[in-house]
Amino acid sequence: MDLTPFINGLYGIPVFGVLLQVIGYLVAVIPPNAPNIMQQATPLALAALCGVLCERSGVVNIGIEGTMLAAAFTAWVVGVAIQPMFGTPNPSDIFGITIPLIISLAAGVGVAMAISALHAWLSISLRADQIISGTIINIAAVGLTGYLNQLISQNSPAGAGEFARFVPPTALTNLPGIGWILAMLLNQGPISISVIVLVIGTQLWLFRSRWGLRTRAVGEHPRAAETVGIDVIRVRYRNVILGGAFAGLAGAFLSIEATNSFQDDMTAGRGFIALAAMIMGRWTPIGSFGAALLFATFLQLGQVINISPPSGELGTIMASVPPQLFDALPYILTIVILAGVVGRSIPPAADGQPYEREAAT
Q: Rg of the chain over CA atoms, in angstroms?
């Protein structure tokens, strides 16, 4: 039975028809672009996990953007430095792993953890304004990486390469209904695939372990936590530095998995979008991951619409819209989400509040 006339009739209904065309267009373009959506979601989800760990223990970290940028640059530049030492190594059959790539990844994560330790020292030990501390990290990262990249890129150096994607069996990706979801999750490099494990593991750790209970207690009522023997300062340091490892993975993903290069300001605001995803996800790992997927879908749609706009009346409408507006979709969504969600999402009670131990009497 040919349903084309019926569908065309529905599409012809004013307003409602355009809405149906939008839904039909999304159904048509999202499944084939699902692996790319997961690629877009990876740095957002990892950065959001960094924010969750920090803020659940009471430390605001808006320096995630700068931490990611420094990690991306470090992972790339370390690869540039050590690649000649290893010649042309044969990539492993699993994710194209080489020793230079492993060293580059470790260097990116290590730098991010060091920057997070600096933020922890300023925010926790010195009790400096946490917003100012994060802002300084962001500004310093943009300036230093931009300057050093100018010096290094003049020689057009070769990096350590990039991690390869895993190619899942077609028997899985062709399964009706769920094949495209499996392709989205499995047709990825190692950092992207690790996101699912890290999200689920952090969710269980935060809400099903003694460590997580102590973290939440410190973020809600540090004074009460201290009275039952929890070391508030230690817990906050630990969470901020561990969160830095997630931000380091997010930055390294950009320069040694999504690409094999570094560009100035290549994070492009992803650290701030990740904070919005964290808020939308109500400071939970799984909620933040879901929000990251939503933001990533809009990031990918902005590119897809520019390359392959829809046909029919919807295509005519979109053709009259400047293409720059589609590029701005995720940032517009960020504003809308923050305007509509922040008032309803309640952060940890002690979030952003410096803690000072009572003097012994």
A: 22
What is the C-alpha to C-alpha distance for residues 100 and 112, in angstroms, rounded to an integer?
Answer: 18
- Which tokens belong to 223? 């004074």
- Judged on CB neighbours under 10 Å (0-12, 13-18, 19+), 143 is exposed
Q: What does the block give as tokens for 170?
A: 């077609």
What's the pLDDT band for 361 if we cut at 50, 70, 90?
very low
Q: How far apart are CA 266 and CA 210, in angstroms?
A: 38
- By the 8 A CB rule, do 256 and 163 touch? yes
Q: How many angstroms separate the CA atoms of 276 and 103, rounded?
A: 31
- Cα within 13 Å of Cα(215), Cβ side: 26
pTM given for the model: 0.92
The total number of residues written for the chain in this structure: 361
Of the candidates 99, 100, 96, the one whose C-alpha atom is nearest the C-alpha of residue 77 is: 100
pLDDT tens across 113-140, in order? Answer: 999 999 999 999 999 999 999 999 999 9
Angle between helical axes of 210-220 and 190-207 (0-180°, round to 10): 70
The Cα angle at residue 331 between residues 330 and 334, in degrees rounded to 5: 90
Rounded to an integer, what distance in angstroms lies between the CA atom of residue 105 and that of residue 43? Answer: 14
- For residues 45-65, one letter each, b for 16 or more C-beta atoms within 10 angstroms of the residue's C-beta and e for the rest, the string is bbbbbbbbbbbbbbbbbbbbb
**What is d(CA 249, CA 102) in angstroms, rounded to the nearest whole number?**
12
Separation of alpha carbons 38 and 51, rounded Å? 19
> Any idea where the domains of the chain sit in the sequence?
35-267
Distance, C-alpha 171 to centroid of its chain: 30
SS3 letters for 15-75? Answer: CHHHHHHHHHHHHHHHHHHHHHHHHHHHHHHHHHHHHHHHHHCCCCCCCHHHHHHHHHHHH
